[in-house]
Structure formats: structure tokens, C-alpha cells
Amino acid sequence: MLRLSLLLIAVSVLFECSDKKDSANDNAIEETKLDRQWWKEGTLYQIYPQSFKDSDGDGYGDFRGIFDELDYLESLGITAVWMNPFFESPMVDNGYDVADYRAIHPRYGTMQDFQEMINGMKERGIKFVLDVVVNHSSDQHKWFQSAKKSRDSEYRGYYHWWPAEKGEPPYRYSLFDPEGGWDYVEETDAYYLHTFAEAQPDLNWENPKLRQEVYDIMKFWAEKGVDGFRMDAFQFASKDTTYPEFPDGYESEFIKYHGLRPQLHGYLKEMYLEVLKPYNVYAVAEGAGSTFEDAHDLVDADREELQVAYHFDYVDMSKTPDGYELSEFKEVFTRWDSAFAKEGWIAIFLSNHDNARLVNRFGDTRPAYRTLSAQMLNTFLLSMRGTPYTYYGDELGMTNIDMLTIEEYVDIDAIGKYEAAVTKGEDIEEFMKVLNYSSRENGRTPMQWNDSKNAGFTVGKPWKPINPNYREVNVAEQNKNPKSVLNHFRKMTRLRNEKLVLVYGDYDLIAPEHEQVYAYTRTLENEQVLVLLNFTDQMAELTLPNEMEVGEVLISNYANEVVGNGGKAQLAPYQAVILKTD
Ligand code: NOJ
User: Fold this and answer.
1) pLDDT of residue 16
2) Which helix (DSSP H) or strand (DSSP E) does residue 213 occupy?
């Protein structure tokens, strides 16, 4: 019954959406000029597997659970799934500490379950992107277990070591360990390097044997049908192995000092020739370096290294409840668009498993505005140049959860930061307020499927509390409502999948100084669309450029007429509209 109603809604959404003739026109656009690739045209959906759907009642999401929801994924109109790590792991960092790159953690199922899940995706035209965590392994990986015990181990050179006879190593910042990036191992009287937690020793990319291991792991998964790789923390791979003392002020060029040495490009080329090219798969780097030049060098098609990068500039915005400036938001996305306008390709995202929920950060969680602002943000995400990455639950407008005491947190990042704040004598009340707002655990609460117990996520005890708003915010409810965030999302993916102008079209910002509205055009040959997004809870007015005539409304989250006489657009609170221009 549920499936049938879902199908009916999906079908009605399909018909409401802009007519199909346009897509035929789009395809007629001279394709030779566009370097058409599925990973540019795709709309990616990120699944945090332990929070998506539990099939066996152990409280953790799993592959069978995802398999059971393949029709849902298809109904979203997404064309690829990126899944966070599900490998064998002691779970110090929820799977970003891999103990065996070829084995699956039993909480997610078996290799056969994995295979059935991705085969099911393929049958529905959905590709699969694997998270490859090879800046570091787990300290439980057999390589590290052997390496730490003997300086003669065949795996010793897979990691970074500072022998204690040289004295203490120069200080290194660690992102998760308040005590710094070097840790002492008694067995071999030496320090090993870890950019993240103590349990995540960094792998040594300068070692050709290690690199070959990585390529073999990637081939193993490519042979199972994986279509792409997301290279975790990749900016930190390849380091200066003299491990020098960093100069004062190095923090402003953190990446340059902590990783991304010039020789990395040679390694990427090697990876391209060994894995990406022969298996016809692509790779996206987490991070884009310190400068545009770094970013270009990573993803410039002519260099044949990686294909896509994603930057972090916007991530630093809105980290506290004080909010963010729309002018800065526009500036960041416009700057990065210009950097990739000619060469390379970028991913566009507003949230993921390392961030709080997008509605809290850039929208409005008040009941009157949650739906509208979530629709507006999804319209933005799916109408920019670059491949959109939607994080599970954002298609519903899922929001942050309140976690007011440190005992409620399980994430190593939150706990490490708390300990550091205590050591530094910071105002803990203030610290907890900011943590509650910004913690990445906000983005990891279980998917809200329906209004039954545990939101339909599990029949057991969920590994993480469910957001209490699941009774109003859930898939079943939103399926029924043509005006829901979910159905707006479906219309939007439909539009993007049909319109090449939304994928490849040039991006031009309009009215950069406007304090409420983010407006831009996308233009491909003689087709142009205008995107108008009101980022505020107030009515907004915007005068369109003189020569601009608007035509058909392709999508809107209100039913009103937007552009009146004199080329003035009137936008309701959080209105998002895309129009054709004549
Ligand atoms: C980046 C991942 O996105 C994050 O979740 C993880 O904690 C670190 N890399 C370490 O792997």
C-alpha cells in the first residue's frame, strides 16, 4: 500500500514537472563542446549506512535495510549513492578507522548483502561511490599491528615514524587528539604520526609498496561494480617526511604544511593509470588544497589525476548559533565557481556526516519556515554548477537534535574538543551551546521513515536517539503531501536530470550586494534559466537586469506570480523559483 502511494506521488510529481520536450531540446545541444560525464550530470545521495534503515533489529542500519528502500532511492531521482565506510573497523571514528579494507563490518551485513544491494541500485540506474580511507588506517589493521612491534617489519614503511633516539618530534597539530599528532610506541621506542585520532595512524604515501596496496584495494572494489571513489582526507596524503618544525602562522596554510606535497600529483597520475582509467571509474577528493591552483592541479582533466574536488570554505561559515552572512555565502560559491569555470569540476554540498543539518545552519527551523527554507536550500543545491551531493534526510528537511550534556555524545571529535576546552579553561556552558548547534552528531541521527516507534528506522534500540520531531518530519507523511520538502526535492532532481543547462550552463551572479536574495542565471548556448532564492523570512524585492525578460516558471515553492511590471521580482519568505528567460 505504502509502495503504491509512493509510486502515485512520484508519478504525479513527474507530470507536474516541466515538460519533457525540453529535455529533448537539451540533448540536441551541441554535445561536442561539453565533456559529458555521468559524474558531472549525476545527482548524488549520501547514505550514512548505520543511520539509514535497520533490517535485523540490532539498532544499526545495514545493507538489507538499504536494499529494502531501493524503490525510495529511485523515487528521489538521484543517480548515484555515496556511502560512508562500512569496512571492518573498531569504530573509534565510526568506520573512518579501517582494520581490513576488503572485509565488511558485520553490523552492515555480508559481502553478498553488499553485492545484492549494489546490483539492485544498478538495476535502477543508480551508481555507487565508495569511501576510500587511505590517508590513515586503524591502529588495529594488521599492517600497523606488525609495524609497531618491530622496526624490521615488512609494514614498518607503511607508516610515518620518528625514532626516539632523535629526541621528541617537533609539535604537530592533530585534528582529533588534543595532545598532538605524534604518539609514542614502547615496543619499538618510536613515535608515529596521526593527523586524526591516536587510533588512526597516517599511511606513508611516499612508499611505493603502500601505494600499490591502495590501488589493489581500489581494484578489488571496482571489480565488485563500484563506479567511483571518494578519497577521504586526501589533502593530508603525501607529507614532508623530514617532519620539520612548522613556521609561525603556518595555520593559515594548514594543508600546505600537513600534506599535499607536490609529488602527490605523480602518485595520483599513477592511480589514474592503474585504477581509474582501466576500470572507467572516477574519484572525488575530500578537500581542494589551500589555493585554487592546488584545486585545479588535482582535478584539471588534462592532467589525468582526480576528477572532482570539494572545498571547505563554506563549511566554516555558520559554525555557531550566530549564523552567517548571505554576502559571504554568495561570495564563496561564486569564487569557487569562477575557479572551475574552465577547467576541472566541483562538488556542491551544504551538509554531510561532518556537519550539522542544513536547515539549522542556513535555513529556518521554525514550523512556519522549515519546509520552505529546506525547499529553498535544496533548490540552490540542485541548480548550481557542480555535482550536487544531498545528505540523507535533507530531502525531508531533517533538523538538528538537542544534546545538552557531554555524556550524550559518542563522537570522538566532540569528545576531543570538549577535553581540549576543559584543559584550556574555556567557558564550558558556552562551549556546550556551540557544540549542541554545530556537532556533526546532529547530522547522524536515524532516518525518519514514518511516525511509528523509532520512526520506522529499527524495531530494536537505535544506536543514536531519533529526533523527536519524527512524528511530523518523515517520509510517509511527506509522500502524501505534494507540497512537502520531499516532493519539491523530487521535482528538482527531475528538472536537473532533464536540463543540461543546470549541469553545464555558465553561472552568473545577479545583484551580488542584495541582502536577502541569492540570484543567478545559468546559460548554455541559447538557453538560460534564472534562479531566485530568498534566504530570509521577509518579503524581498529584486530588480532584474534591464534587458532580462522572464518566461515560464520551471519550479517554485509558492504558487504566486513572481515577476511583475517593470522587471521587479517579489519573493515571499524563503521563496525559491527557477524561471526560463526569453
Ligand atoms: C573525513 C571524514 O569525513 C570524517 O568523518 C573523518 O572523521 C575524518 N576524515 C577522518 O577519517
Assistant:
1) 40
2) helix 208-222
